[in-house]
TrEMBL record, chain A:
An example Gene Ontology biological process: U4 snRNA 3'-end processing
Name of the molecule in the record: Ribosomal RNA-processing protein 43
Pfam families attached to this UniProt entry: RNase_PH (PF01138), RNase_PH_C (PF03725)
Keywords: Cytoplasm, Exosome, Nucleus, RNA-binding, rRNA processing
CDD domains: RNase_PH_RRP43
Subcellular compartments: Cytoplasm; Nucleus, Nucleolus
Annotated Exoribonuclease phosphorolytic domain residues: 46-180, 217-279
Organism in which the protein naturally occurs: Citrus sinensis (Sweet orange)
Family listed: Belongs to the RNase PH family.
GO cellular component terms, semicolon-separated: cytoplasmic exosome (RNase complex); nuclear exosome (RNase complex); nucleolus
MF terms (GO), sorted A to Z: mRNA 3'-UTR AU-rich region binding
Length: 302, 243
């Protein structure tokens, strides 16, 4: 397949950018042979990660996470609802992942991106599997009122490793969440705005003490590409489109495996590859945990 | 450690398997696969000319439509479609018919646990029925891990919901080789130990996951035998209806 002689003849005269576009796999393999990637990262290093909390002022909790160029904005809004009959003392979390056309030239308005419902479902599975949110904490009045948490994640720039960045922004938004105060008013739950706290002594807040969620095992993830014998951590969108075998490992802070997601792909994952991916993820969990702690303490100082 | 399963099976026992091919006459290939009460019907149409907009025209492309038993198509169905599409892309030889689309339609007849593995097995049997060239077949299995660390195979829906975690694993078909050396070893393991697809749900320890992988590989050998026997009983004249 292809013209191997043509690439050899042209490669001496061709510019690097043209070679990158015309023979992308050969371009990457030449780099991999030297254990480096075109953006000068080593094979096991992830891109620079930053988190900034409170990015959306009108939301109850929000965060902006960037892994390299991939940018995700997560925002949480809470609403009071009647809990369902099967679980009368549990709240509910609804996660939605949007890929607006701003994120990538391949996404057009009116045609939802193929990746969007998959990442949304993966996120809600991961967050419920990890036990980070205890739904019983979201209950206000047993059987009558509970919190409904709407988490919306917007992809602002899709440059590979979408699930990793989305999970990080969701976790950061939950850490930043301030549950609004509510009070019981004639049998109805009413939201109390912040300023009225000193004046209205008759409207006692129902949940004055409980303003933050206690988070259980926080999940962090790393996506790796398997290509022949190489394992590349944290791929960019260019690498993802050329070498299609992805493995996403989600570990929580106690090193429990929350999810190992490998949706097909030409390369088979043998035990040694799986163990290497899990080891890379363990390292990444420590880095991400530290970055999250710094962002949280940075918020509290302000 | 003895475990009581509701239907009296032991932890390594699969439910009764049944596979029938060529049940639909208009489709180029079709198969119905049932594991216990979970039953899935798969139909293959293709290859048809042309690919969709963002697909690579130098390769054949695959389209999967998943129809649940009741209700509207939502995010879980879209996720199953993508997982099935990527699994099938890795087993079909895509360079033989470039710029074509092969469609898979999966209809869930009854869901009693291990739905995705059942669908993958049905799709592979339908592929053989249609005569589409493949590198190898895929066999799929569901393994559950309970709190005490033991692992059971092929759970029913009730068992899936009660267990701490479960994993859907897809392995390549085991190779029946004429040469005495048997299958080639890659990185010290036979080829059929490689994982094509893995989807897990629920948190388990890393050791539990590797334990599930071992049990899954042993079970996939049994499934491969069953698949080989049920497909070999077809007449050679019926094999290719595609195109």
């Amino acid at each position: 397949m292809g013209l191997p002689n043509a690439s050899e003849d042209l490669s001496s005269e061709m510019e690097v950018d043209a070679f990158r576009r015309l023979f992308p796999l050969r371009y990457f393999e030449r780099h991999l042979a030297e254990s480096i990637r075109p953006d000068a990262r080593s094979l096991s290093r992830a891109r620079n990660t930053t988190i900034s909390m409170g990015a959306v002022a009108s939301a109850d909790g929000s965060a902006l996470a960037k892994i390299g160029s991939t940018t995700m904005l997560a925002a949480i809004k809470m609403e009071v609802m009647t809990p369902s009959l099967e679980s009368p003392d549990e709240g509910c979390v609804s996660i939605d992942f949007h890929m607006p056309p701003i994120c990538s030239p391949l996404v057009r308005p009116g045609r939802p991106a193929e990746a969007a419902p998959v990442v949304a479902k993966q996120l809600s599975d991961t967050i419920s599997s990890s036990g980070m949110i205890n739904l019983k904490e979201l209950s206000l009045v047993g059987g009558k009122a509970a919190w409904m948490v709407y988490l919306d994640i917007y992809c602002l720039d899709a440059d590979g490793a979408l699930f990793d960045a989305a999970l990080l922004s969701a976790v950061a938004a939950f850490s930043n969440l301030q549950i609004p105060t509510v009070s019981l008013d004639d049998g109805k739950i009413v939201m109390l705005p912040e300023e009225q706290k000193e004046e209205n002594s008759e409207k006692e807040p129902v949940n004055k003490e409980k303003r933050k969620l206690t988070l259980g095992g926080i999940p962090f993830s790393l996506t790796c590409i398997l290509h022949k014998n190489y394992i590349l951590a944290d791929p960019t969108s260019e690498e993802e489109s050329i070498m299609e075998t992805l493995v996403t490992v989600v570990l929580d802070s106690s090193n429990q495996l929350v999810s190992l997601y490998k949706p097909g792909g030409a390369v088979l994952a043998y035990t040694s590859a799986v163990q290497d991916c899990i080891a890379l993820t363990r390292q990444r969990v420590k880095e991400l945990h530290q970055i999250l702690e710094e962002a949280i303490s940075g918020m509290e100082i302000d | 450690m003895e475990v009581d399963r509701a239907d009296g099976r032991n932890p390594n026992q699969l439910r009764p398997l049944a596979c029938s091919c060529s049940i639909l006459h208009r489709a180029h290939g079709s198969a119905s696969w049932s594991q216990g009460d979970t039953k899935v019907l798969a139909a293959v149409y293709g290859p048809k000319a042309g690919t969709k907009k963002n697909e690579n025209p130098e390769k054949a492309s695959i389209e999967v439509i998943w129809k649940p038993r009741t209700g509207q198509i939502g995010k879980p169905e879209k996720e199953y479609e993508i997982i099935l599409k990527r699994t099938l892309q890795s087993i079909c030889i895509l360079t033989i018919n470039p710029n074509t689309t092969t469609s898979f339609i999966i209809q869930v007849v009854h869901d009693d646990g291990a739905l995705l593995p059942c669908a993958i097995n049905a799709a592979c049997a339908a592929l053989v029925d249609a005569g589409i060239p493949m590198k190898h077949l895929a066999v799929a299995i569901c393994c559950c891990s309970a709190e005490s660390g033991y692992c059971i195979l092929d759970p029913t829906k009730l068992e899936e919901q009660k267990m701490k975690a479960f994993a859907y694993l897809v392995f390549p078909n085991s190779i029946l080789s004429v040469l005495p050396e048997g299958s080639s070893l890659v990185q010290g393991e036979p080829m059929e130990h490689g994982i094509i697809t893995s989807v897990t749900h629920g948190a388990m320890s890393v050791d539990d996951y590797f334990h599930c992988l071992e049990r899954g590989r042993a079970a996939s050998a049994k499934l491969s035998d069953f698949l080989r026997r049920s497909l070999q009983s077809k007449l050679p004249g019926d094999l290719s209806k595609a195109g």
